[in-house]
Amino acid sequence: MNKKEFLDILYEQLSGQMPEGNVAAHVQYYRNYIEVAVTQGRTETEVLNELGDPRLIARTLLDTDSTASGNPQTTGSYSEPYTDNSYEYDNGSSGSKKVKSRSFHIDLSTWYGKLAVILIAVVVIFLLCTVLSILIPVMVIFGIVCFIISKLRS
């Protein structure tokens, strides 16, 4: 088994079982782990043998995903799904590989993502009501004054 097969199996086992952002984060973590170990002089086969079966890793990740709050490996949310070519590398002059920048987003499938949306909606409604409660009386008074002035002129 090579790195691509390992990552593809891991992705297939996780896909549909957890949010896509978490799947991509797990796959990227193992991609980086393998690449770092290989750059340290180990062979890809040695690293993959040490990691073991990607199906077992996926099962472990699925079993622990809901209780893994605070784990940077699972809380990062990549904005695009995993494909073998989704992460481009830039070879710098030093010969080291660097991941190009990626954007992040709030994962609305989690309780804290939903809570954030609800809190934002409550704040917006509160501000809107506050502004309207000040504006409506001012506009009514302004309208009455304008009406009285127009009647006095005619």
From TrEMBL:
Pfam families membership: HAAS (PF22564)
Report residue spans for region: Disordered.
65-85
Identify the keywords attached in UniProt to this record, alphabetized.
Membrane, Transmembrane, Transmembrane helix
Going by the entry's taxonomy, the superkingdom of the source organism is recorded as Bacteria
Which residue spans traverse the membrane? Answer: 116-149
Mind telling me what this protein is named?
A: Predicted membrane protein
Origin organism lineage: Bacteria, Bacillati, Bacillota, Clostridia, Lachnospirales
